[in-house]
Amino acid sequence: MVKKIALEEHFLDPATEPYWRPTMVDVAPAKTAQLFDALTNFGEQRLAVMDKAGIARTVLSIAGSGVQAERDTAPAIRAARASNDFLAKEIQKRPDRYSGFAHLPMQDAKAAADELERCMRDLKFCGAMINGHTNGQYLDAPALYPFWERAEALGAAIYLHPADPVAPLPVLSGHNVLVRPMWGWGVETGSHALRIISGGIFHRYPKAKLVLGHLGETLPFLLWRFDSRSAPYGWNLPKPPSQYIKENVWVTISGMYDAPPVRCSVDALGRDRVMFSSDYPFDAQGAGPFMDTVPLDEALRADIAYNNAAKLLGLN
Asked: Omega before 240 cis (within 30°)?
């Protein structure tokens, strides 16, 4: 069993639970209760799952949209800070097993940047997870340039997690099975990442670091097409799309436990750009066995499972 660092691993706390509950209205009450129990457990239950999967360290982040669903900036700032302080106290109980991604009030660029800096410098978190758009504002917005400037200066990894789109996609109307994890979230998050790239964030902040789950939300499989179709259709950045993706984007295997996409991602992005995650507790059962058995060179397996994340996030 190879040693692992897991990067898309969720929790809930009193400050973010009210934002999570509305997302579960279509889920059976028994399943919601089961998930809530797992998300709020930081003791033997979670550690037993980690041990079974060979996960030496988990980087914890809140479940759901969190304060990004909040319409008012002041309560979002307060709740994000409370959530991060709660997580820091849990990490202090098991610093050998847990690390944290900051939860940020993206309604206000300076407040988000200040909270990111506080979390990394004072609480020793290793980056942040952002759950898609914030009330319709995507991360390429000029209003968020001060946030990206600070994130780059801090060397912070920004994990972009899926969220529902601002409005339902008409093409998926009447096909609810496609709307969220099967397809719609990937379309939304991959498109969001492309907005960040084409909006010039990595041109303006060349050392910024973006992490995508699900092996990059299909982006690694489309590099040639991005490049071949960009310039004829108005691409106005000095580097081709693929170069920004290769230089500024890392991906994790969360929810993509299949050998061909892993090989494609490694070939497209490089062996140092693919990392492990298990999406606990939503998709945790298959991640560890997959990582241990997928046909890979053992040195590459160790890089994906542990070494790449340790290097990116400065973890032991």
From this structure: no
- In whole angstroms, give the CA distance from residue 81 to residue 204: 28
Task: Give the model confidence (pLDDT) of 120-167 as tens digits.
Answer: 999 999 999 999 999 999 999 999 999 999 999 999 999 999 999 999
Identify the CA nearest to 116 among candidates 163, 159, 57.
159
Q: pLDDT tens digits for 209-251?
A: 999 999 999 999 999 999 999 999 999 999 999 999 999 999 9
Q: Could you tell me the pTM of the whole model?
A: 0.97
63 Cβ contact partners less than 8 Å away, ≥ 6 residues apart: 10, 11, 12, 16, 20, 35, 39
**Token pair listed for 244:** 């920004």
- Going 237 to 252 to 56 to 113, the CA torsion angle's sign is positive
Residue with tokens 């008409």: 170
Whether 292 and 54 have beta carbons less than 8 Å apart is answered as yes
Q: Is 114 a catalytic residue?
A: no
* Phi and psi angles of residue 98, each rounded to the nearest 5 degrees, phi first: -120, 140
Q: Which run of H or of E encompasses 55?
A: strand 55-62
- Annotated catalytic residue within 279, 283, 297, 303: 279
CA 5 to chain centre: 14
d(CA 197, CA 185): 18
Coil/strand/helix, residue 249: strand
